[in-house]
TrEMBL record:
GO terms for molecular function: hydrolase activity. This is CubicO group peptidase, beta-lactamase class C family. InterPro entries: Beta-lactam-related, Beta-lactam/transpept-like, Diverse_Enzym_Activities. Residues 45-307 form the Beta-lactamase-related domain. The keyword Chloroplast does not apply. Coiled coil: none annotated. Keywords: Hydrolase. It comes from the Bacteria. It holds the Pfam family Beta-lactamase. It comes from Paracoccus saliphilus. The keyword Hydrolase applies. Gene3D superfamilies: DD-peptidase/beta-lactamase superfamily (3.40.710.10). PANTHER family: BETA-LACTAMASE-RELATED, BETA-LACTAMASE-RELATED DOMAIN-CONTAINING PROTEIN.
Length: 331
C-alpha cells in the first residue's frame, strides 16, 4: 500500500525529473501510478475549464454505471436545501426545526431539540449525540430514525461544534420533505438530475418513508463530476442556473471544523487548506471543486473498505493537492 509520505515523494520526483514530458502528461502518469498502488481506487476524473484532462476507471463499475456515493449524499442534501430556501419553502437557514417541520418532533424529544436550526443541521452542529460510526447500526435498527435522532442526548450547545452524524442530515432531509411537500428523491431529480442530464435511482427509506438523508445514494461517476462542475461554477451547469450562487458561496465559508480530518466544514461541504470544496463518502468517494483554479474532480473507490484521514483518504488528499492541483498549472 502506498503511504502518504511515499506517494508525495513519488509525485515530487515525477514533476521534477529531468527530460520529463509536458507537465500535464507527468500528472497523468502519477495518477496512473496511483491505480497500481492504491487497491481501493476505482476511478478518477479531472476537468480543467471545459476540458476533461484525465478520466480513468481501472476498477469498479466504470464511469457510466452507478456507484454508491455514501456520505457525499450529505453535500447533495445541502445543495437541495439552498433551492428550498430560494423558493421560500423554508424561510431561512436560521429557521427552527419546530417552525419548519413541527410534526417531526416526538413528544419526548430531547430538551432543546425544537430550537435546533436548519443551519445547525446542515453544518452538523445540532448538538445531539451522533448516530454515525459505532452508533449507526442501532440507529438504523430503530423504528423511527428521525425520532430516535431527536431523542439523543444533547452533548453540546447547538451551533458550537461539529458532531459528525448522518442522523442530523436525515432530520434535515425529512424537514425539507415536510416543507416542500416532495420526497428527497423527487427534489433531487427535479432540481438537479433532470436539469443536469443524469438519473437518480431510488435509495434507502426509513420506516416512515423518508429517504435517507446523508447516505446510500447512487450516482454514476460522470454525474459526480457534473456536481463538481456545479460547485466550481457557482451553481450553474452548462450556462443554466441550478442552485443560487449566494448559496454556493455561503456553503464554502467554514462554519466549523472536523475533529477527524481538521478540515473546515461549511453548508454540507468540507473545505481543504488548498482551496477545494469537497464532498466525502465512506470508502473514498469524492466530489471536489476548486473554483479559483477552475478544477472539478470526481473519485470513486471501494465502498466497502474504510478510508481514514490518516490512511487512504489522506492518500486521496495528496492526489488532489499534488498531481491534480498542478493540472491547472499545465494549461
Amino acid at each position: 500500500m502506498l503511504t502518504r509520505r511515499s506517494f508525495t515523494a513519488l509525485a515530487t520526483m515525477s514533476v521534477a525529473a529531468p527530460f520529463a514530458r509536458p507537465a500535464q502528461s507527468q500528472n497523468a502518469s502519477v495518477l496512473d501510478s496511483a491505480f497500481e498502488r492504491l487497491e481501493q481506487l476505482h476511478s478518477i476524473q479531472v476537468q480543467r475549464g471545459d476540458d476533461l484532462v484525465y478520466a480513468r476507471a481501472a476498477r469498479g463499475p466504470g464511469l457510466d454505471e452507478l456507484a454508491n456515493i455514501k456520505s457525499c449524499s450529505k453535500s447533495i442534501v445541502a445543495l437541495l436545501l439552498g433551492t428550498c430556501i430560494a423558493r421560500g419553502e423554508i424561510s431561512s437557514h436560521t429557521a427552527r426545526l419546530a417552525d419548519v417541520a413541527p410534526a417531526l418532533l416526538p413528544e419526548d424529544a430531547t430538551e432543546g431539540a425544537a430550537d435546533i436550526t436548519i443551519e445547525n443541521l446542515v453544518t452538523l452542529q445540532a448538538g445531539l449525540e451522533g448516530t454515525s460510526g459505532s452508533r449507526y447500526g442501532g440507529w438504523i435498527a430503530s423504528g423511527n430514525w428521525v425520532a430516535d435522532a431527536l431523542r439523543r442526548p444533547m452533548i453540546a450547545e447547538p451551533g458550537s461544534r461539529m458532531i459528525y452524524s448522518t442522523g442530523s442530515t436525515h432530520i434535515l432531509g425529512a424537514a425539507m420533505t415536510e416543507a416542500s411537500g416532495q420526497s428527497l428523491l423527487s427534489l433531487a431529480r427535479q432540481r438537479l438530475g433532470d436539469h443536469m442530464g443524469f438519473e437518480i435511482p431510488p435509495w434507502v427509506r426509513d420506516p416512515q418513508g423518508y429517504y435517507l438523508g446523508g447516505n446510500e445514494m447512487a450516482l454514476t461517476p460522470r454525474a459526480m463530476l457534473s456536481l463538481a462542475l456545479l460547485m466550481r461554477d457557482d451553481g450553474t451547469f452548462r450556462g443554466t442556473r441550478i442552485v443560487p450562487s449566494d448559496w454556493i458561496r455561503a456553503s464554502t465559508i467554514s462554519r466549523g471544523r472536523s475533529p477527524y480530518s481538521g478540515m473546515g466544514y461549511g453548508y454540507g461541504w468540507f473545505l481543504t487548506r488548498s482551496g477545494y470544496a469537497l464532498a466525502r463518502g465512506y470508502g473514498g468517494q469524492v466530489i471536489a471543486a476548486h473554483r479559483d483554479l477552475g478544477l472539478a474532480v470526481a473519485i470513486t473507490s471501494d465502498p466497502n473498505r474504510p478510508a481514514r484521514s490518516g490512511g487512504y483518504f489522506g492518500d486521496l488528499i495528496d492526489l488532489l493537492d499534488n498531481p491534480i492541483l498542478t493540472f491547472a498549472e499545465a494549461a
